[in-house]
Amino acid sequence: MKLFLILGAINGFLAVALGAFGAHGLEGKLSEKAIDTYEKAVTYQMFHTMALLVTGLLLVKFQSGGLIWAGWMFFVGILLFSGSLYIYSITQIKTFAMITPLGGVAFLIGWILLGYVVAKHL
Which stretch of DSSP H or E encloses residue 64? Predict the structure, then answer.
């Protein structure tokens, strides 16, 4: 699905831009722990950007509802996991950190679905 390739490209751009902002714009403004949290958000966003791109490429070959769901789970995971960690690291409002596990569950579901479809079709 072309949409997941576009979302992957956008998220790849954002991961690089937010990583650079964290390294240069937030240096000295956040605690070391907050910077570590921010970097974790960037890392997970980039890894799951790659998963979005792989999902989009696989959809070119296999039209599968499981792949479509996997792509959405990766995208939702980026929003919830990385998004909540970005906000939490900057604001230190614990409510945002409580959202993070929901994004982690979305990532796990995405990987299970991707693995299932690949095992079934390849």
Answer: none
Q: What is 74-113 written as a DSSP string?
A: HHHHIIIIIHHHHHHHHH--HHHHHHHHHHHHHHHHHHHH
| Vertex 89: Cα angle to 70 and 5 (nearest 5) | 25
CA distances from 86 to 34, 49, 70, 97, 98 (A): 9, 16, 23, 9, 13
Residue-wise over 62-75: b if at least 16 C-beta within 10 A, else e?
eebebbbbbbbbbb
pLDDT in tens, 67-105: 999 999 999 999 999 999 999 999 999 999 999 999 999
Predicted structure pTM score: 0.96
Q: Which residue has the tokens 């240069």?
A: 24
**pLDDT, tens digit, for every residue of 28-45?**
999 999 999 999 999 999
DSSP per-residue letters across 11-38: HHHHHHHHHHIIIIISTTTS-HHHHHHH
